[in-house]
Amino acid sequence: MKNLGMGLWILAGSCLLLPNAAMADNYFENAGGKFATGAANAGGAVLEIPKNIKIASLEKGPLYGMTAGVVAGVLHTIGRTVYGVVDMATFMIPTSSMVDPVYAWTDFDRMTTYRSAVQMR
How far, CA to CA in Å, does 42 sit from each of 5, 15, 109? Predict the structure, then answer.
């Protein structure tokens, strides 16, 4: 019962901040953009596999690309999917994407990196 009371106090306190966020310029556009980016990353993450095969093949040859490139692609697919789901779950807090490049299909010749710091949109 004590945990429920604490949870209700936290919920009530966070609701006090919502009107301020809703009145911010472009809040709904930024929140909707974050949700759309998250959905695109969760759905298009599988493109990381051919992307990493291509990058690894160009760097160290086709055999390396078909082995290490596939492994790296699967790992980046998991990472991009997780970040996409997190973006969709937290779309009401409009932060910029933690994945660079933002979409798997943009800048197909560059390795995907992940930021450690959260930045507001």
Answer: 35, 28, 20
Do the domain assignments include residue 71? Answer: yes
Q: Which amino acid would we find at residue 97? A: S
Helix, strand or coil for residue 82?
Answer: helix
Please check whether residue 84 lies inside any domain of the structure.
Answer: yes
pLDDT, position 1: 58
| pTM of the model as a whole | 0.75
Least confident of 32-41, 68-77, 109-118: 109-118
Based on the structure, what is the number of domains in the chain? 1
- Alpha carbon of residue 53 to chain centroid: 21
Other C-beta atoms closer than 10 Å to the C-beta of 111 total 15
